[in-house]
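Sequence only, no structure available. Ideas?
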Amino acid sequence: MRITRNYRLSLELRPIERTDRGIARLNAALGIYRETILPEAQNPERQILYWIDHGKDDLTDEFRCFAILTGNLVTGYLQYSFFREENIFFFEYLCLRDPSRKALVPSEALKVIEDYLSQNYLPNFTIVFEVARKRNEGGAWEPDTKLIKYFKRLGFRTVEFEYRYPILQSYDGQSSYPADLMIRLPEKRTTVLSSEMRTILRCIYFKHYLRWDRPFLEAPRFAERERLINELYSSQVVRIRSDDSFNTDGDDKRSQLLRFVRHPVQIRQLLEKIFGPKLPRLLIIIVVLLVTQRLIANDWLLVPFTLAAALIYCLAEDTEASRKLIVVIVSKLSLFRTRQL
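Reply:
I predicted one. Tokens follow.
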């Protein structure tokens, strides 16, 4: 996971699901991404935009992006892949911006993410992410101890496994780089079984990295990319015996806390999620039309009144989809008037 500086105030997670909606919010989130992620660790933005629009094409797996907001101000960006069959999340980027402070992202940001995942996905999932190692002055790779300690305080644990991630943007030089693999296992477990490790590696390498590159590479180039990742995967799993298990290192007290628990959702929250601030407007329109229908005392007029309610709501929305619906509703009302005559 690539992570940046923090934002102290209360946060909200807002999905980015299409590139033709909420453009200002999308641009602001990607602006934070550009500013806070090292160029060599970035995916090209055109690729991110493609996957925002196509992240649900595969009904099994998901690619998701989120803007993180404080009020109406965009203060961060989150990107992850979810492998539904394996019930595994792979967090790739978490970026938040606050020029006034130099500490790492506060736990409040992780709490917002925790609430979202627990309410929208089945329980007992696994979360994994990479903490890339850095070169020291002597050119040797060493763990990012500051970042690792921070995530351990949040309940994540490092896996005792020599993990490597494939190079992102070019295929020159080294084909992979070392990183520390961090994890949160379900049911307070602290040991990764050999079968789980193989599954995690397969998901990250093939269902994230290789899947990500497929739309952007010509056939020969993609074949080379596939060969590179196959070799990396093989070099990793050859060191895993069937009876192996991998210990994890972390804060035993914090990692045993009950987290990612689904809380009962109230009807009011569901209504707000579906209708948002438009619900009062819709209710007023329905009440006015029902009162009018009662005054007319003709039940047969309920159908055109329902269509009329939808028409008025669409006029108030004034979007491309609502304008198309207006045309359909007007045609239905015209048909009803003709039959009455």
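The chain is about 45% helix and 20% strand.
Hope that gets you unstuck.
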